[in-house]
Write a structure and sequence with these properties.
Blueprint (H helix, E strand, L loop, with lengths): L7 H51 L12 E11 L4 E10 L4 E10 L5 E2 L4 E5 L10 E7 L2 E7 L5 E3 L1
Antiparallel strand pairs: 1-2, 1-5, 2-3, 4-6, 6-7, 7-8
Amino acid sequence: MKTEGFTFIELMVAISVMAVLGALTTAGFSNYNQVQVLQTSGNDITTMLNEAKSRAQSQVKLGTICSVPGKTLTDYRVDISQTNKNYSLSVDCQDSGLNNFSDLLETKKLPQNVNFTSSPSFSFPVISGGVQAPGSIIIISDSGKQKTITVSDLGGISEQ
């Protein structure tokens, strides 16, 4: 007797193999997604730190409260808020009476499930260069994964 097709056992084995492969793929994708969210968050913070450093070195003050005549640019600052899960770029200046002024330029929020472990502030002075918080480290953790961003005393920024 000649039969065509697959037996019930053969179909069940094929479906079981596909289910196992599907489960492995889903777990791998979930882990990949967590790593990418953490990597992107670290890159965004590093970009903001580099922007503050670059603006301080070039002494750019266009479009800020510091561009008003009579005000002297003093520094660019990146503030980290652990409680609000955000980070912001600000510019600081002084007038001839040594009154301090600050202008918030940009604020970004961390994605869900990504947190800061501390709330440091990094100030990049215009004239002296470097950073006023040397050796400071930001650690971001997401489900046990961590990313460290280090700011050296010369203003160098590195990710690990």
